[in-house]
Amino acid sequence: MTAIIELDTQHPDPALIQEAASIIRAGGLVAFPTETVYGLGADAMNERAIRRIFEAKGRPADNPLIVHVCDRAMLDLVATEVSAKYEALIAAFWPGPLTLVLKRKPQVAKSVSAGLLTVAVRMPRSQIALELIRQARTPIAAPSANLSGRPSATTAAHVARDLEGRIDMILDGGATNIGVESTVLDITSEPPVILRPGWVTREHLIDTIGRVDVVATAEELKRSPGTRHRHYSPRARVVLVESGSSESVEQLCKDLLQEGTVGFIGHSRVAIDNPKLTAIVMENTADEYARSIYSALRELDERGVNVIVVEGISEEGEGAAVMDRLRRAASEAE
Ligand code: TXA
Ligand code: MG
User: Fold this and answer.
1) Is residue 231 part of a domain?
2) Where among 173, 193, 221 does a domain terminate?
3) Smallest-distance ligand from the CA of 146
4) What is the CATH number of the domain that holds 57?
5) 79, 85, 233, 333: which is deepest, by most CB within 10 A?
């Protein structure tokens, strides 16, 4: 049985959070909202609890988890010392959507790091998440709260759809603000490397610490094992039309309609009158795409469309994170 508890996002009822915190302390699983996407949380220091996360999600054991802390002091429980240069990142971006990969402490459950000598850590901005970690009095490891490979969950209903019956509790704090996952930055290497683009952009990071690289080669990608697996994917095939491409999304939809039902997600109006087409039109901004993309992919999947055409956006600024997720959703890998 999965209890679903509704909470006020700004002033969550401490008694309800206390219940969730007791579940975490007892080795259970609680899904909770962060400012990016919903997370599926367990005590980061409890190996058995962490294994339950991998089971509930069907997550490959070689894909490490992000540990969530509620203050700077808690970071020292899971990671070794941070140099002054990188304290500046914490000061500038925490709480917020920046995950730092650091050298781990041995107290962290082994499976959290999937065998690596490092641990990924962030301090989320959501009041519900912060209060939950505070009351649990332990760092909380939490991957995105979706079945492995599926689009991430940005509402409690998405979490329930994937994980009801597999986890102990879902804290419902409404739709998340940002909608795509945090930036993952490895600061164990010099210069530091972005392993996953996110809402904190490369430009933001460079403004704070100078040179920052972006993971490029397959060899480097091995450092972020999770990025190898199929990700963010609905059941339907996804066809992505990159921004600036000469291909007309309208013509593409028409062609695909010859073969079956089609979903469209984009910012252009497609003037096609055909009951086999479901169109979800949104503003041409990274904000709007980030907030809506996972729920749009899920909605079209619920309708059972055969193929989903997605119109891409510019890769500038936060657009890089959105396009990273869309390319992975459209890739045929694994
Ligand atoms: O916004 C987010 O980051 C959300 C919320 C819930 O905080 N979490 C999230 O977790 O997206 P997940 O498990 O879906 O993605 C974690 C990413 C994966 O790409 C994983 O490979 C990488 O972080 N990661 C975790 N630990 C790592 C480590 N020690 N070294 C390199 N990459 C790591
Ligand atoms: Mg994920």
Assistant:
1) no
2) 221
3) 2
4) 3.90.870.10
5) 79
